[in-house]
Structure of Kynureninase:
Amino acid sequence: MSDLFSDAHAAALDAADPLRTFRDEFHLPLHAGAPQAYFVGNSLGLQPKGARAHVEQVLEKWASEAVEGHFTGDAQWMDYHALVRDGLARVVGAQPQEVVAMNSLTVNLHLLLVGFYRPTRERPAILLEAGSFPSDRYALESQVRFHGFDPATDLIEVEPDAEDGTISMAAIARAIATHGHRLALVLWPGVQYRTGQAFDLAEIVRLGHAAGAVVGFDLAHAVGNLPLQLHDAGADFAVWCHYKYMNAGPGAVAGAFVHERHARTDRPRFAGWWGHDAASRFRMGPQFHPTPGADGWQLSNPPILALAPLRASLALFDRATMPALRAKSERLTGYLEQLIDAGLGDVLQVLTPRDPAQRGCQLSLRVRGGRDRGRALFEFLAARGVLGDWREPDVIRIAPVPLYNTYGDVLRFARTVREWRT
Ligand SMILES: *Cc1c(COP(=O)(O)O)cnc(C)c1O
């Protein structure tokens, strides 16, 4: 086998990569005149070159047609959100009427909790992972309080049971067995943002439903990263954002999934006119009649300019396809792992599960030797155009994204770590 750390090795892997041309579809930020090794697609994905044309089309239509833009042409604003529906459904494994692009992530979480978190005295509790993304915890805690319950007893956090900070399915099953009779809701991540651990969603749905709970997911770090089958998994609802692996731009309009079996739900919801039955919306009647499916959860007419880049992004996902992206992702992240194991184990400890089935593209790497040493390495990398992100107290997250990262990028990371150590 050729030397893993050689240029020739990475170049051969890149040459054999069937998705290598997709990198040219993105604007790559520069460092000292050359592209960065950008591993922060888990935070803000890169800009598809096609995004600008979609945004400009909206600006042009607004300039030339003004209010008529709502009703004219293929990309009329009245149905603009429908332009992304099929592509989104393919990315998350849903039926088209089960998904909608609207609002932002935490807003969607709250809106769906209005319908899907219905606590009673007997069943007031929400199960979530310890160390969840703060916004999710704030949302859940405030919902528990809003309903007059006590987060101290009714927000049940499953602690990691492995040394690396991951949570086994056995621990989740135990928590559901212990608290099941009190659970109104299980709200779980598809991929945990801090550890990069991916979960078996269908199994969590099965366990949650068997205990009589509703099961929802936050897929912020899963969508566009792992192939998902939300419909078949049986999730009641899910929410996610589009600015991470979906590359739809800062603050992009987010996504939501409502399972078909709830398409005509009489669950409570906070209603707005854009969720009203589309055929009669403009009769402007006083009674709210929801559009069946996910569309019925919309409140407002969507921010068209913020939705436009998602069209460019989804076109790339459709061309590349999730199975092909996942196949590359396993190899690309596998190469990163190999390099660490072969030559950087004295500097970096991999916290993310070693089993590819339990992770997406991200590896969370603990820098051995504590916080100061970790920060020093992080800054050394950034100063050389190798961009990861920092999680206190001593973790660097590296997310090689199969749409635009190369094996060469991964090698550059590993070599820069090696340079720092010596
Ligand atoms: C990125 C992320 C968020 C961010 O929420 P916004 O409402 O989009 O600002 C929330 N939750 C999780 C799990 C995330 O990964």
Q: What stands out?
A: The chain has two domains: 2-47+321-421, 55-318. The mean pLDDT is 97.
